[in-house]
């Protein structure tokens, strides 16, 4: 019987050990699926709904995973496996479809959707971001995936509302160097109301004049913007700890008093997987909206 150098174990013993671990993993997967089924049934009986995506719970689980991760297996591999397990279990009780933004490269959108929602979820390509917003708004629990671009071809976020689709998550959630499925995107979903537990609040902001100053100086990130002859629309993100009146004051302090400012969702702050697990991702700039960049 051959021995591995310095291991003290024979190859057959190691194979037996691996087989036993695989059996435990399989049993744990079956147990988790059964528990998920029980949770879904209890939620329905309590008047809730069976949903594929629970962004706040998902963010908590990912944070715990990052904190306990150690060893040689890449963190991004564990993330993908974990997400696939979660979505496979929850999709047993849900017929949710994910609508994809047709304005982005289809292969990139498919990679992103498969990485985060697994292979058991129906993917529906749309014509553009506005089409995705509309599909989610009239669905019974479907999700939307919209690619984030600095300069949008249309202000699609104008159609977001509490009566329809809202921003519920930002991807990638775990920011890593040279990671797969790294297309920046937002997840849209219906919600009974604006989520008060989100780390980051998202606003639809509109200006009919110059947009001077650097919003980033006030802690405001421009996720995407659209320029037209009448001014500029922007989808902005800021700490959810601030009430709307303080967000308005922050815009004014940046020299950019908006004509319209309304909250259209929120998301958990992404994790910087390259540094301290407790650190969240910090954007580097504000999409190039420097002084005088956007004009009437």
UniProtKB/TrEMBL annotation:
Q: Where does this protein come from, organism-wise?
A: Roseibium marinum
Q: What is this protein called?
A: chorismate mutase
Acidic residues biased stretches = 275-288
Q: Which GO terms describe its biological process?
A: chorismate metabolic process
- SUPFAM superfamilies named in the record: Chorismate mutase II
Sequence ranges assigned to domain Chorismate mutase in this UniProt record: 5-97
**Record EC number:** 5.4.99.5
* Stored Pfam families: CM_2
State the coiled-coil residue ranges.
Answer: none
From the UniProt record, which GO molecular function terms apply?
A: chorismate mutase activity
**Region annotated Disordered, chain positions:** 267-296
InterPro entries hit by this protein: Chorismate_II_sf (IPR036263), CM_dom_sf (IPR036979), CM_II_prokaryot (IPR002701)
Q: Which domain of life is it from?
A: Bacteria
């Amino acid at each position: 019987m051959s021995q591995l150098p310095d291991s003290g174990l024979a190859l057959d013993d190691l194979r037996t050990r691996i087989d036993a671990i695989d059996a435990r993993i399989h049993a744990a997967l079956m147990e988790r699926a059964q528990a998920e089924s029980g949770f879904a049934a209890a939620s329905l009986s309590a008047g809730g709904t069976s949903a594929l995506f629970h962004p706040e719970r998902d963010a908590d689980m990912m944070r715990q995973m990052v904190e306990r991760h150690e060893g040689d297996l890449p963190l991004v591999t564990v993330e993908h496996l974990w997400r696939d397990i979660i979505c496979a279990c929850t999709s047993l009780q849900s017929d949710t479809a994910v609508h994809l933004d047709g304005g982005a490269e289809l292969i990139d959108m498919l990679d992103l959707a498969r990485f985060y929602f697994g292979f058991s979820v129906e993917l529906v390509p749309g014509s553009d971001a506005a089409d995705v917003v509309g599909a989610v708004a009239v669905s019974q629990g479907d999700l939307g995936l919209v690619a984030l671009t600095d300069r949008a071809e249309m202000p699609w976020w104008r159609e977001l509302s509490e009566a329809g689709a809202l921003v519920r998550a930002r991807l990638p959630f775990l920011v890593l160097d040279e990671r797969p499925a790294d297309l920046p995107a937002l997840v849209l979903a219906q919600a009974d109301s604006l989520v008060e537990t989100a780390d980051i609040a998202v606003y639809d902001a509109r200006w009919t004049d110059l947009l001077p100053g650097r919003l980033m100086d006030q802690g405001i990130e421009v996720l995407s913007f659209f320029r037209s002859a009448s001014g500029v629309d922007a989808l902005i993100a800021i700490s959810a700890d601030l009430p709307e009146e303080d967000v308005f004051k922050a815009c004014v302090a940046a020299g950019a008093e908006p004509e319209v400012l309304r909250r259209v969702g929120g998301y958990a702050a992404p994790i910087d997987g390259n540094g301290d697990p407790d650190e969240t991702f910090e954007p580097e700039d504000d999409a190039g909206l420097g002084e005088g960049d956007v004009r009437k």
